[in-house]
Design a protein that fits this description.
Number of helices: 4
Distance between the termini: 54 Å
CATH topology of the largest domain: UDP N-Acetylglucosamine Acyltransferase, domain 1
Structural class: alpha/beta
Helix content: 25-40%
Order of helices and strands: HHHHEEEEEEEEEEEEEEE
Mean pLDDT: 94
Shape: elongated
Radius of gyration: 17 Å
Largest sheet: 6 strands, mixed
Number of domains: 2
Number of strands: 15
CATH class of the largest domain: Mainly Beta
Length: 193
């Protein structure tokens, strides 16, 4: 009985969050669509409100991104939806729609800008070099980053890039490539596929 009451309470909170933050926000809507698609979720009926409800109830990693998007790191309702991921995305970092994280544990993101459809996994560090916040990365569209990756300095990562797990990226990366290693090196072009 208590479980049903908690579930009903969470659904009520989700409906309030939807009205206030989601229904008129195209960036959050892009995040929702990307997460539903990438996770292969089937929601019936196939409407935005139901998709948001599904993600908030069953994917705490999505909820972590949602509360960052609404600049409510300490929102009083956040504990109903989010585990303690120890994920920090700097408020000054601009990230376009379609943001998705699979496991946001032990992640710090401090970048000039990140394009649309950015996807990352756990233990990601994106940040400055020599403690100088003018030397932070810019990341393009459709970039996927594996686990345990470090991206630091005043560098640019192009569009359509896959950064392999465990990479240390300290130099510019062109578009349409896969990089791996420490230091990161291009191991494949995506133009050949």
């Amino acid at each position: 009985m208590i479980h049903l009451l908690k579930h009903a309470h969470r659904k009520y909170l989700i409906s309030r969050l939807y009205v206030k933050y989601v229904k008129d926000n195209p960036v959050i809507q892009q995040d929702i669509e990307r997460n539903i698609s990438a996770r292969g979720c089937k929601v019936n009926p196939d409407i935005l409100k139901k998709k948001f409800n599904h993600l908030m109830l069953y994917y705490p990693e999505y909820a972590e991104i949602f509360f960052w998007r609404i600049t409510a790191r300490y929102h009083p309702w956040k504990p109903y939806f989010v585990n303690d991921f120890n994920c920090k995305i700097f408020g000054s970092t601009k990230i376009d729609g379609g943001l998705m994280c699979s496991h946001p544990f032990a992640t710090v993101i401090n970048a000039k800008s990140i394009g649309k459809n950015f996807q990352f996994r756990n233990s990601l560090t994106i940040g400055n070099k020599h403690n100088d916040n003018s030397k932070i990365p810019s990341i393009g569209d459709n970039v996927t980053v594996g686990a345990n990756v470090v991206i630091i300095g005043d560098i640019t990562i192009g569009d359509n890039v896959i950064v392999g797990a465990g990479c240390v990226v300290v130099k510019d990366v062109p578009s349409n490539v896969v990089v791996a290693g420490n230091p990161a090196k291009i191991i494949r072009s995506l133009n050949d596929e």
